[in-house]
Amino acid sequence: MPIHATNTSWVIETANTAYAFGLNEAGCLVHRYWGARLPSVNDYPPPANPAAWSSFNRPAQLTREEYPTNNDQKFIEPALTVVFADGVRVAELQYTNYAIQNDALHIELQDTYYPLRVTLVYRPLVGYDLIERSAIIQNTGQESIAIERVFSAQWHLPYGDDYRFNHLTGRWLDEFHIRREKLARGVTVTESRRLHTSHNHNPYFALDRGSADEDQGEVWFGTLAWSGNWKIAAEVTDWASTRINIGVNDWDFGWELKPDTRFTTPISFGGYTAQGFGAASRTLHTYIRSILPHGDTLHKVLYNSWEATFFNVDVESQKRYAEIARDLGVELFVVDDGWFQGRDLDNAGLGDWWPDAKKFPDGLKPLIEHVNGLGMDFGIWVEPEMVNPDSDLYRAHPDWVIHFPNRTRTENRSQLILNMARQDVQDYLIEHLDKLLTENNITFIKWDMNRTVSEPGWPAYEGEQREIWVRYVEGLYNVWGTLRQRHPNVIWQSCSGGGARADMGILRYADQIWTSDNTGGTARLAIQEGFSQVFPANTMEAWVTDTEPNLPVTFRMHVSMCGSLGIGANLTHWNADERAEAAKWIAVYKEIRPIVQLGNQYRLQSVQAGGGFSAVQYMSKDRGEGVLFAFRTHIPDPINPLSLRLRGLDPLSQYTVEGFEGSRSGAAWMQTDSLFTLKNFESTVRRIRQVG
Ligand code: GLA
């Protein structure tokens, strides 16, 4: 029974974890436990009843409330702050009742005076060992209530102020670096204020007691299904109570909760493991695969001509690239930016989503038919949320962009952002993209978003202006969701100048993420390792390009074979040997891709930890087959060989590993070191096979 409920006590259990809370003697909804599942429901600690002991220390400071507001004297980060119509700025919530609906526990709280109802939703994802949390804020009265902050959850950890905050940070071209930092007393914030999820931080947290590693140690982790401004506020109180607030960012946020309406927060996910960061990642990977629109569908090897032709797209050149790509074994040919009306450079055309009359006088069909005739699928790039001032769309609707009157409309890459919160903008995009997909045999779309926000105004909106942050994302989901419903076979990729829109919200619409605009093989080792903390390899689009031309083709191929393989190089510049090398590895990739894309991933050697080596292993879910990639970047000789212990094998079965003599037990491969001698910028891929 995953939800144990009485009128005062609730325990949410997954296969191996549990989260418990209940009412204390003061009637306050307080946290009790988050960790390993215990044998009996009576094993979880009872709610604490802190007492006051001085005029400066009220019990509220010690109470670990599940969803605190700013009443009493807490001086901690509240999960919810509102302003009532009469100016009162404090909500006082009291438990009223609970219900179990659709496998989720709903806890109802009611303000003691005002018509404000809060429903906390907890859903155990039992087999996945994750718990979903969200909140519904409802106005049951006659006057509006202003919401100033509304987080999805406050997750409490066992008492202690010795936690490490493990998070992902970076920049454009350099996303997803894992940082492991001691959580100081006070509040530590990671967030996005950029309208998209951001290159700079990802809404992911993992807390450990300072000693977890890939294979062992307690880790409490989570993330948020949201593709706009988000915030994580990790707080360690004066009393060594550590908690994570996660949700829509309250920075510049506002929401008018009108009578009889509700605000539903995005879902946050939380998980616990005692098996280290590797197990935490595999838990997220397994669940994320289950929510992807196309689930376990294997991704095709693609070729994207962007880095070969940039904006010089025309039928003849694209046909040529398609033919070379086909000869290498590519299965999906993608035309990137530059194909639509007026798009000769980055300063014009965005918004006019029909084929450029000059470059494609007969539309896209002749090229698509050629590509299909070569036996490949056809895909295309769009950037729906953007508009260039030099476009028919902007000339007709200059008021459709995000802007304030009397303020500069700051351009980035000569483009402005369409206000996706507007219904007319959503309708326009649905109409034009639907037409593109209806008229053409397109099976793959790369959806890009190439700038961050400025002047976040919505002059035409008569309500609370600061709702734009949330309504924009809802509009984005509506457009994407409608198109996905109308064209269910299309595979969508979420790109935002690389990995700035990588989150569990967008992965309900997109099957893949464009990991980074940085496609250099050595840089990618670190970026991919960070990405894999949260996202599975099938969502990680990885191209081989000419960014680091001196790196061996083999090395570049191996790096990209760790995800969903693509080629983005200018293949006309590759000589026969290089093309043969690429073709050879594409063939190998097709054999191993079920293991890479859908198997369990083990980070054997961290490149982010320094030292120049990197190694990652993938095992099929049944542990029958695996593949190991190892890389050496630059390290001055002499050095020891790379020594690795395999992971995820059945200890009692026999396995062979390519390059090593004979078979050994899984236990032997996992408990003893295997040595790999690699030269600078050399890499290796080894098949692992269960043989008995
Ligand atoms: C972004 C993407 C690139 C490419 C260009 C096209 O930068 O990340 O892969 O699609 O836009 O303008």
Q: Give the CATH topology of the domain at 3-291.
A: Beta-galactosidase, Chain A, domain 5
The molecules bound to the chains, other than polymers, are: alpha-D-galactopyranose
Straight-line distance between termini = 38 Å
Using only C-alpha atoms, the radius of gyration works out to 26 Å
Instruction: Describe the main β-sheet briefly.
Output: 10 strands, antiparallel
CATH architecture designation of the domain at 3-291: Distorted Sandwich
Describe this protein's structure:
- The chain has 692 residues and is of the alpha+beta class.
- Among the domains are: 3-291, Beta-galactosidase, Chain A, domain 5, CATH 2.70.98.60; 603-690, Golgi alpha-mannosidase II (Immunoglobulin-like, Sandwich), CATH 2.60.40.
- The chain contains eleven helices and 38 strands.
- Strands 6, 7, 8, 9, 11, 12, 14, 15, 19 and 20 form a ten-stranded antiparallel β-sheet that branches.
- The longest helix has 23 residues, at 576-598.
- The radius of gyration is 26 Å and the shape is globular.
- The two termini are 38 Å apart.
- 51% of the residues are buried.
- The structure holds alpha-D-galactopyranose.
- The site of alpha-D-galactopyranose has 11 residues, from loops.
